[in-house]
Design a protein that fits this description.
13 helices, single chain, eight-stranded parallel sheet, TIM Barrel, alpha/beta, 8 strands
Length: 299
């Protein structure tokens, strides 16, 4: 767990090594999605090897609004910085469209690098963008997206920073166009390809076969358009990365709704206390013992 004193983020090399391992073993790297620093600590405590910062969850938690491009670069980077500081796991972060044109993408990469993330994904939607599993998305032309990927690759100061190129063109332009866009992004230097909102196992198999030479990301979007395959099925297709972007958000929301309903009905949380994480266990999770050790050290 992240040390408050003299800690350093694991850095892009750690994520790249885990991706290489996933490719060589055929066992996809699983990245649960988180929207805040507490979620990152929970993912690490659960034994996962990496963390995904979800833009959908960040928007919902920070604004209480849907993922329709309402958060900007500085807000997303600030959220990423807090998540990175809370965990010793490498963080892959949603960077939306890069928040503008190719020049904006350069600054986006620089700011995310300064925040300490190990990788980002960039998409080809027009502004304002939407969650990949919402309807009525529009995308930029292929050349514009390829230019953004080239700018991102050129802008990174650490060559190990993982650049994931995402295309949302399947919904509006069809599967052939989405595969062609992904291929062009790989040729431009993208490390991982993310073909969003595929529908049906036939489409997944087609993408996996046509882009088999490049690491692929499977978006296990809870309740989304893509079939909810098992881990073994995703591995058999050849995907190297699986993200579960909003499961923690939905689980937390369900738990809070249950707690609040009981509180409203009973007037106090007394009947619900035994179902909560014990206070002492929670303070241990968020690092109180370390703080107490530092207080004694510097008293």
């Amino acid at each position: 767990m992240a040390d408050l004193l003299r800690r350093r983020p694991p850095g892009p090399a750690a994520l790249r090594a885990k991706l290489d391992q996933a490719r060589s073993t055929g066992e996809p790297l699983v990245l649960p999605g988180v929207y805040d620093a507490l979620g990152a600590r929970l993912v690490e405590r659960a034994g996962f090897d990496a963390v995904y910062m979800t833009g959908f969850g960040a928007t919902a938690s920070l604004l209480g609004r849907p993922d329709v491009g309402l958060l900007g670069l500085t807000e997303m980077v600030d959220n990423a910085r807090r998540i990175v500081a809370a965990t010793d796991l490498p963080v892959l972060a949603d960077a939306d469209t890069g928040y503008g044109n190719q020049i904006n993408v350069i600054r986006t990469v620089q700011e995310y690098e300064r925040a300490g993330v190990a990788g980002i994904h960039l998409e080809d939607q027009i502004l304002p963008k939407k969650c990949g599993h919402l309807d009525n998305k529009e995308v930029v032309d292929i050349e514009t997206m390829v230019g953004k990927v080239r700018a991102a690759v050129a802008a990174r100061t650490d060559p190990d920073l993982v650049i994931v190129a995402r295309t949302d063109s399947r919904a509006s332009h069809g599967l052939d166009d989405a595969i062609e866009r992904a291929r062009r992004c790989a040729d431009a230097g993208a490390d991982v390809l993310f073909v969003e909102a595929l529908e049906g196992t036939d489409e997944l198999a087609r993408v996996a076969a046509d882009l088999a030479d490049v690491p692929l990301l499977f978006n296990w979007a809870e309740g989304g358009k893509t079939p909810p395959l098992s881990y073994a099925e995703v591995a058999d297709l050849g995907f190297a990365v699986i993200i579960m972007p909003i499961g923690t958000l939905l689980a937390a929301t369900a738990a809070m709704q249950q707690f609040l309903a009981r509180l409203k009905a009973d007037g106090t949380p007394a009947a619900f206390v035994d179902e909560l994480v014990p206070f002492g266990a929670f303070t241990e999770l968020i690092g109180l013992p370390e703080i107490e050790d530092l207080e004694r050290r510097f008293a």
